[in-house]
Design brief:
Blueprint lengths: L9 H13 L11 H7 L3 H11 L4 H9 L15 H7 L3 H9 L9 H8 L36 H7 L4 E2 L20 H5 L4 H9 L5 H4 L22 H7 L3 H9 L18 H7 L3 H8 L17 H6 L4 H7 L15 H6 L12 H6 L2 E2 L22 E2 L11 H4 L16 H5 L5 H16 L16 H5 L7 H9 L3 H7 L8 H9 L1 E2 L17 H11 L2
Parallel strand pairs: 1-2
Antiparallel strand pairs: 3-4
Length: 546
């Protein structure tokens, strides 16, 4: 019997092609696929084999599914990784060369992915889009154009701040720039800045775009459609080098034409200069290395909120960092919210240290000195009426710290050491340590003694003085309040300086220290006269006012 030749049909060819195409894709949720594995492999034959097999694909499919394949743990998310980025982060120079020679995108990521991620940081957003939802694709219709990023603070934005609490330097709904994996590294040059100068040179010679980081910064951003790939990134190579502690690349970048003041303006109020970024991330040695460059400018303030590098240093209560920066305190003007350096030093560190159960505190204080933005939205609900009802103790006989020597025996105050963190658990819950108070007092003294006592009179856009912020902490730094009250104008401010809601620092303090948090026994300011213990009174009041 003779075998008859049966030719391939179009369907057979299509099936064979799709099987070939499928062989390059991940097989399951935890599988990155053969292209990424080969790109980071130290065996160059692994990537050569991938390339040889991919010759059977069309040029477009070879680009989309092999050379520039974008991988994410959740394919609908923005957690991108590509073969070129993987080869760079693995410091696999041979595979970097192979990818670029065979036509991989030298920028490492396509512009659509960069733009989609950058939209999560727009000031103007549709009320129907949740930029924190990782699986949502953000379109241009969901957010305002990039031209809005550098506009001055609007009245609506100011009003929105009074309904919640925010970092003093960012918006209430701000996302961390690294919200998604590699989100702040969506460019080959950014990834290369974390590795070696040799890899950086190869990427730049291949034609990777760095125009946004090598030219002077504009005062206005053009429309998104006109932005080059580097301008769509929420970070810069200098920031990436600082994050990784890569001093060699940081030194090399300005010499290779990169602007030592480059910022990712697409990130809006989070567009810090490299000098500011080094301070925020507590890298004083890298600040010094960059500051010696003749074009490095420490006077630049952030877009929109106008925050100076000294504000970021003061927020950390670190006088050594102030010395490293080496600028006079007068170099920092008040921010767009009216915050002086003294305001920032006196703010609660974060929401865990704010007495949010006290109505006058909640009404008055809307900023904190933390230098981090949260993965989750700031708890706006804590400023609404849905809070559990708090109890109250009787009003104290005195008017605040510094009164007790004459108006209340010191023995009736719970000692400072008993009101602050006593264990690692307390530290994790956010309660300040005694040392934090000592550092805060030292910074406050420096900020008042150098410019003069008139600093205590200055108010922000809410009408708050520095003493309003000190009075709002769950555990008040009594020594700092007492010291400020003893300065010229200090006691007058404490008793008479009313904010826009009509509350003086003394009013805020009384509301604070007489509040007993729901479902807790207060270990704060409870009078023990009459033979009852602090714990007994607190427990009785808490139970009686549910």
């Amino acid at each position: 019997m003779t075998d008859h030749f049966v030719p391939y049909t179009p369907d057979d060819i299509s099936m064979e092609y799709h099987q070939l195409l499928g062989s390059f894709l991940p097989q399951g949720e935890s599988d990155k696929g053969p292209t990424l594995c080969a790109a980071e492999s130290k065996d160059p034959s692994a990537w050569l084999t991938i390339l040889q097999r991919s010759l059977g694909l069309s040029k477009r499919d070879q680009s989309d599914f092999v050379l520039d394949f974008a991988y994410g743990e959740d394919m609908a998310s923005q957690m991108w990784d590509t073969p070129l980025l993987r080869a760079i982060v693995s410091k696999n120079m041979e595979n970097v060369h192979l990818l670029l020679e065979h036509g991989a995108n030298p920028n490492g990521v396509d512009c659509d992915s960069q733009a989609s991620y950058a939209r999560r940081f727009r000031r103007v957003k549709s009320a129907t889009v949740d930029v924190r939802d990782r699986i949502v694709q953000i379109s241009q219709e969901d957010v305002g154009d990039s031209t809005t990023q550098l506009l001055t603070l609007s009245n609506d934005e100011l009003a929105r701040r009074t309904s919640t609490i925010s970092p003093f330097w960012a918006f209430p709904d701000a996302l961390p720039l690294g919200y998604s994996e590699n989100g702040d590294l969506l460019h080959s040059v950014l990834m290369a800045a974390r590795t070696t100068t040799e890899i950086l040179e190869v990427i730049l010679r291949a034609g990777a775009d760095g125009s946004a980081w090598t030219t002077s910064q504009p005062d206005e951003l053009p429309s998104e459609d006109l932005l080059r790939p580097s301008a769509l990134c929420v970070s810069t190579p200098l920031h990436a080098a600082i994050d990784s502690g890569n001093a060699l690349v940081l030194d090399a970048l300005p010499d290779r034409g990169f602007n030592s003041n480059a910022r990712a303006l697409i990130a809006g109020c989070q567009a810090l200069t490299p000098l500011q970024h080094a301070v925020v991330h507590d890298k004083p040695e890298l600040y010094q290395r960059l500051a010696v460059h003749p074009l490095a400018d420490s006077s630049i303030v952030t877009p929109v909120l106008k925050v100076h590098v000294l504000h970021f240093a003061i927020a950390q209560l670190d006088l050594n960092l102030i010395d490293v920066i080496g600028l006079p305190l007068s170099a920092a003007m008040p921010t767009a919210l009216g915050h002086t350096l003294l305001h920032v030093a006196c703010m609660p560190r974060d929401e865990s240290q704010l007495q949010m159960f006290a109505p006058k505190v909640r009404q008055s204080v809307h900023d904190m000195r933390t230098l981090h933005v949260q993965q989750q939205s700031w708890p706006a609900a804590i400023y609404q009426l849905a809070l559990p009802r708090a109890g109250q103790t009787e009003l104290p006989a005195e008017d605040g710290p510094a009164d007790y020597p004459t108006r209340l025996p010191r023995m009736n105050w719970l000692p400072l050491e008993e009101r602050v963190e006593r264990s690692e658990t307390d530290r994790l819950l956010g309660m300040p340590a005694v040392d934090d108070f000592n550092r805060q007092l030292a910074v406050i003294q420096t900020l008042v003694m150098e410019p003069g006592p008139a600093e205590t009179l200055k108010i922000d856009i809410y009408g708050n003085t520095a003493l309003h912020y000190l009075a709002s902490s769950r555990i008040v730094n009594d020594d700092a309040v007492a010291w400020l009250r003893k300065q010229e104008h200090g006691d007058q401010v404490w008793r008479t300086a009313a904010n826009r809601w009509g509350w003086t620092p003394s009013d805020v303090w009384k509301d604070n220290v007489t509040t007993i948090e729901p479902a807790q026994e207060s270990l704060r300011y409870v009078n023990t006269r009459g033979g009852r213990s602090r714990r007994g009174i607190a427990g009785t009041l808490t139970r009686g006012r549910r």
